[in-house]
Specification:
- This protein is α/β, with parallel strands linked by helices.
- It is built from nine helices and 13 strands.
- Strand 5, helix 4 and strand 6 form a beta-alpha-beta unit.
- The chain is globular and about 55 Å long.
Length: 321
């Protein structure tokens, strides 16, 4: 059955992937983006007969009355800068989109009796003292630092979701997403996979921050999108927070060596000072997602990186021609 679905942040990395997927399923789609970090090139080929794009900030009070955003049945609230490079350059916008923007979307969900998925982040756990991280862990987040505009705004967004669920029985679910990647990440995004792959293919130094012993868990975009769609689908997930991430953990240095090898790169690996509040470890417990959604990731880091490197190589060659 066709549904009318709203995606905020539709021109971003995750939003544009999700848009293509939902349109392939036959849905009618409305996408909102103010293009602060999203790119129109991500959504230019979407079918115009079933896709409506609105260039607007989700924090605007005009969102709720926009004629295209009526009779919505599902809302994916993805709008927010997600790379430290972008959210640290726009801290107030980052706070607003995850608080005011989230409240606007929750009001819209309540008015339309729509389901909503709010994309939170593994950054909600901060620099964790519990490892790996289950959804019940309350985190170790610094409110007085350069990452706080993102971490704490996402956490407050979760509180708003909780209150709407408790007060109004809004059908909202929260996804805490762990390090999603694919070739869809812009070359200049600033996140570790896009940095390393671009540097390796260009023969530039691969820049590791700190000594590289800090760990991350990387989830290929198709696995993340499948998790978000299952989260939307399952009524058992209403009022729940669920980790969406790959539980296989790699050190950053291991990832640098792996990308260098897979890309047949001559790049040197260089070390630079670690940014403030950079988490030392990061790995999701995904038992809740398995039980409630029947979800677990299927794409290994090696397979995901091979595909990412293949597509980046094409993009970089096009740029050179």
């Amino acid at each position: 059955m066709k549904k009318k679905v709203l995606i905020t942040g539709v021109a971003g990395f995750l939003g544009s992937h999700l848009a293509k997927d939902l349109l392939d399923d036959g849905n009618i789609l409305v996408g909102i983006d103010n293009l602060s970090s999203g790119k129109m090139t991500n959504i230019t080929n979407l079918p115009e007969d079933r896709f409506t794009f609105i260039n607007m900030d989700v924090c605007s009070p005009l969102v709720a009355t926009h004629p295209a955003i009526q009779n919505i049945s599902e809302i994916y609230h993805l709008a927010s800068p997600a790379s430290p490079k972008y959210y640290q350059a726009a801290p107030f916008d980052t706070i607003n989109v995850n608080t005011i923007g989230t409240k606007n979307m929750l009001e819209l969900a309540r008015k339309n009796n729509a389901k909503m998925v709010y994309t939170s982040t593994s950054e909600a756990y901060g620099d964790p003292e519990v490892h790996p991280q289950p959804e019940t862990y309350r985190g170790n987040v610094n409110t007085w630092g350069p990452r706080a505009c993102y971490d704490e705004a996402k956490r407050l967004g979760e509180v708003l979701c909780y209150e709407f669920y408790k007060q109004y029985q809004t059908k909202v679910k929260v996804a805490r997403i762990f390090n999603t990647y694919s070739a869809g990440l812009a070359n200049d995004d600033g996140r570790v996979i896009s940095n390393f792959v671009t540097q390796a293919l260009k023969g530039d130094d691969i820049t590791v921050y700190g000594d590289g012993t800090q760990t991350r868990s990387f989830c290929y975009v198709t696995d993340t999108i499948r998790g978000l769609k299952l989260l939307m689908e399952k009524d058992e997930a209403n009022g729940e927070i669920i980790n969406i991430g790959n539980p296989v953990e790699y050190s950053i240095l291991k990832v640098a060596h792996l990308i260098k090898a897979l890309a047949n790169s001559t790049s040197k690996i260089t070390f630079h000072p670690l940014p403030q509040d950079d988490p030392k470890v990061r790995r999701p417990v995904i038992e809740k997602g398995k039980a409630l959604l029947g979800w677990s990731p299927t794409v290994s880091l090696v397979d995901g990186l091979k595909e990412t490197i293949r597509q980046y190589r094409l993009k970089l060659n096009l740029n050179k021609s």
